[in-house]
Recover the amino acids of this structure.
């Protein structure tokens, strides 16, 4: 085996220039693909992190059917769910964020607006989405504090500022009447215009009292370390919580639009990389055609002296693999420092185009895109090259299979 | 005892278009230890006969028995195995593997036979010594002269311990000195180790050294004579 490997390795260097040109084409393809995929993955991770940390979280636990109805009547019993969650050990989970959310009408004087009331533990919310850093005025609410934090757009629309008051009215738990007056304790700014014009925060106890839903939650947000640990956490919770009572939903289920956009982007890049690899495939195939043609005589001699066709085909397959892997390994080695650099120094869109950066910000995305250093991206490239080489090896293998030593030696 | 037995061999090329009768009923028996030259002008069928004896080509009619094995009974894979273990080949154009050294070229056939590493190395070195190339073990074919390459080819042909060696015009590309050296080596191996050699040639220098000369014309054996050397 060692000798056959050695033979195959030496054979690829019989025509150094051709091998180097072929390997170089693979090198550039792998370099480009690895860098592009790392940027794409890094950018999407960043976007998902931005979107999820802003409000929705990576995953949420709801009472069964809540997400479809969004009704405060389909809520969780806080003590019961907390008791169950305390018994579940989940690696990679930072915290559970209890919330009670529902819509209400916010009024001040002659002006009113529909708002989403988010009753939450604001200390915990800060850990998820840096809420305190988004404050433009005032401060976070402390536990049980009677007051409200308004999104900046909403405050502008109602023409309100700190120390003003706001009336919230809604239908509470089991159709109870919910109405109260709250002083404005803070103004928070979101980049996302949708959030900016409708969000208002209450302390969770205050919100439960407002909705007449003491001890009830509409959901629990999971604050997790990163997107990579999400699947195992969600799977673990689903297996341990009663599926008749609870829904455990990840951000992909809660935000199918974002997932579709991600899939669309992935499909686009797949198309680009597919075209690139098809070009590379034909490049390698050209080399292979020449090599097979040139070595017909040699193949004839080798079978004449007793080399089985299977062994000869295996040796030729190894040659093609070596040629591909010389380029692939060089490409991976070449792309690692590039990826590493952009992991530490993300691409800042504001340096290239302020308009583009503004557009990203408008939709709630931070316009800074790091690359993602994921070993699977490099392994994926190596597998693609392996696959291309193996598929291409079918041609010389077929030639060898139908080889007649005498005819081959006549050629 | 016959090591090669060929009976009523016919070989027709281009059977469906313009048939060429390369062999027309050839019968030949070759004994162990013979040093036989198959001679004749171009197109007489000597290379075709050698290819059929070597299991590289199949006849349209007739039987070939080599060391009690009928080649017609073997499929392509079995034929390859048979060639590997029983026949040594020397080609006109040497046909060494260009990326292997002289020693590795000789070892290669033994590698195909799955021989132990130590045995392969020892036999390769011994054979290269016996053809006078002990100082060229690590040279690649491109670093050797034509005569030296053909001597490596002889060593390679003998490496598998074949029952006989077939040589297709082995001296066609060699100068006089190299031809003489090569013939000396093969004659010595034939005499001292009783190795059977069968050549196809029209080189008078080779014919002179053969102990048996089979003369072919138009696909038939015209004469078959023993000669004193």
């Amino acid at each position: 085996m060692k000798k056959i490997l050695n033979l195959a390795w030496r054979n690829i260097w019989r025509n150094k220039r051709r091998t180097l040109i072929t390997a170089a084409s693979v090198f550039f393809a792998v370099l480009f693909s690895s860098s592009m995929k790392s940027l794409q993955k890094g950018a999407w991770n960043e976007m998902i992190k931005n979107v999820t940390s802003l409000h929705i979280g990576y995953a949420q636990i709801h009472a069964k059917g809540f997400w479809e109805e969004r009704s405060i009547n389909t809520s969780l019993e806080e003590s019961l769910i907390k008791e169950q969650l305390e018994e579940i050990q989940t690696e990679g989970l930072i915290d559970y964020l209890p919330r009670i959310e529902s819509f209400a009408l916010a009024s001040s004087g002659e002006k009113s607006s529909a708002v989403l009331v988010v009753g939450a533990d604001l200390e915990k919310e800060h850990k998820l989405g840096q809420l305190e850093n988004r404050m433009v005025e005032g401060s976070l609410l402390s536990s049980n504090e009677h007051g409200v934090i308004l999104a900046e757009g909403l405050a502008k629309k109602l023409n309100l500022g700190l120390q003003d008051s706001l009336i919230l009215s809604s239908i509470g738990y089991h159709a109870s009447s919910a109405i109260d007056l709250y002083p404005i304790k803070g103004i928070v700014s979101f980049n996302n215009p949708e959030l900016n014009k409708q969000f208002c925060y209450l302390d969770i106890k205050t919100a439960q009292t407002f909705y007449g839903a003491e001890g009830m939650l509409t959901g629990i947000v999971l604050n997790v370390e990163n997107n990579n640990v999400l699947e195992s956490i969600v799977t673990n919770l689903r297996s341990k919580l009663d599926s008749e009572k609870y829904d455990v939903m990840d951000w992909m289920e809660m935000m199918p639009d974002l997932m579709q956009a991600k899939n669309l982007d992935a499909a686009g890049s797949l198309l680009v990389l597919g075209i690139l690899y098809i070009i590379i495939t034909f490049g390698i195939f050209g080399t292979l055609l020449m090599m097979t043609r040139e070595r017909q005589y040699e193949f004839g001699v080798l079978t004449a002296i007793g080399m089985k066709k299977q062994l000869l085909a295996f040796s030729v397959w190894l040659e093609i693999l070596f040629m591909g892997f010389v380029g692939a390994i060089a490409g991976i080695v070449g792309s690692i420092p590039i990826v590493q650099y952009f992991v530490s120094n993300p691409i800042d869109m504001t340096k290239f185009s302020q308009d583009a950066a503004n557009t990203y910000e408008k939709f709630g995305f931070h316009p800074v895109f790091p690359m993602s250093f994921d070993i699977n991206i490099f392994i994926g490239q190596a597998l693609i090259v392996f696959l291309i080489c193996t598929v291409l090896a079918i041609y010389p293998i077929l030639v060898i299979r139908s080889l007649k030593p005498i005819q081959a030696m006549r050629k | 005892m016959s090591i090669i037995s060929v009976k009523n061999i016919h070989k027709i090329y281009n059977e469906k278009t313009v048939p060429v009768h390369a062999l027309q009923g050839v019968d030949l028996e070759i004994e162990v230890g013979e040093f036989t030259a198959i001679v004749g002008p171009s197109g007489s069928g000597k290379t075709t006969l050698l290819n059929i004896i070597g299991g590289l080509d199949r006849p349209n009619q007739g039987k070939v028995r080599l060391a009690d094995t009928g080649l017609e009974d073997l499929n392509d894979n079995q034929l390859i195995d048979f060639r590997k273990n029983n026949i040594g080949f020397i080609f006109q154009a040497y046909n060494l593997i260009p990326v292997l050294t002289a020693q590795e070229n000789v070892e290669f056939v033994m590698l195909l036979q799955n021989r132990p590493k130590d045995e392969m190395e020892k036999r390769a070195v011994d054979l290269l010594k016996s053809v006078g190339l002990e100082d060229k073990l690590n040279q690649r074919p491109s670093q050797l002269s034509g005569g030296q390459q053909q001597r490596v080819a002889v060593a390679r042909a003998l490496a598998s311990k074949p029952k006989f060696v077939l040589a297709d015009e082995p001296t066609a590309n060699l100068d006089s000195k190299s031809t003489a050296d090569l013939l000396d080596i093969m004659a010595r191996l034939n005499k001292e180790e009783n190795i059977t050699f069968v050549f196809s040639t029209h080189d008078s220098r080779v014919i002179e050294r053969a102990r048996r000369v089979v003369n072919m014309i138009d696909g038939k054996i015209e004469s078959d004579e023993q000669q004193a050397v």
In short: Chain B has one domain: 33-58+85-226. The first helix of chain B runs from residue 46 to 53. The two ends of chain B are 22 Å apart (CA to CA). Residues 33-58+85-226 of chain B form a domain with the Rossmann fold fold (CATH 3.40.50.300).
